[in-house]
Amino acid sequence: MINLEKAKLLKQLYQYKSFGFEYFQDNQTLGTTQNQPSVNSLDELEHKVKQCHLCQLAKSRKNIVFGEGDEHATLLFVGEGPGANEDESGRPFVGRAGMLLTKIIENVLELTREDVYITNIVKCRPPNNRVPSVDEASVCKPYLMEQIAIIKPKIIVALGSTSYHYLTEDYDMPISKIRGEILEFGDAKLIPTYHPSFLLRNPSAKKEVYADMLKVKRLL
Ligand code: URA
Q1: CA–CA separation, 23 vs 17, rounded Å?
Q2: Cα 88 to ligand 1 centre (Å)
């Protein structure tokens, strides 16, 4: 094993240890859904994330963006990572894309942001809003899996290709091909759709997201 791989594995093992794992089976991967969270509440988990320095994003963040909404939400939205507004405020999806997501939740799903839970693949802002690296996503993903284990959503909506790819590790699948499919993800259904930022740049894709959200609404 080369040194970089060893360092990555060590980092990963330390993170599992911080979650309370005492042993590690070598067939257990970061992509596995954890059914049993190592903490009792999202508040406890957020406290851990606030202290996280496992990747370089910790150096440039102003705030962690843990997520917000109903701790027992049936519906969970997973975006890519915080942008400038989110880094500043510590809240997910509060910029232009967030306003569009809020409209979708309210007008199509006929819910409020407080009824659902909203979070991201990575909890710290990637500089210049670049896509989170595989390393950054893989050290942060256990936090997301813990959130899922605590919330126990019935439906997870992956917002955009980065969210879909890192959630499923199905890296070769284009979001345009998989969006709107109802997939199995642990105990939840996973429905990938386009990211609201993509919709801001490509308003004609709103009709596809509308159709995907009608599917979500039927499954709720
Ligand atoms: N884009 C995301 O993917 N997440 C946010 O929180 C904001 C914008």
Answers
A1: 8
A2: 12
Nearest atom (ligand 1) to Cα of 91: 6
pLDDT per position as a tens digit, 77-125: 999 999 999 999 999 999 999 999 999 999 999 999 999 999 999 999 9
136 lines ligand 1 (CB under 6 A): no
Q: What are phi and psi of 156, to 5 degrees?
A: -115, 125
Residue to substitute in 65, 86, 131, 163 for testing ligand 1 pocket (most ligand atoms within 8 angstroms of CB) = 86
How far apart (Å, rounded) are the C-alpha atoms in residues 94 and 215? 25
pLDDT, tens digit, for every residue of 40-76? Answer: 999 999 999 999 999 999 999 999 999 999 999 999 9
**Helices and strands per DSSP (H, E), number in the chain:** 10, 6
Q: Considering the entire predicted model, what is its pTM?
A: 0.86
State the residue for tokens 């995907």: 212
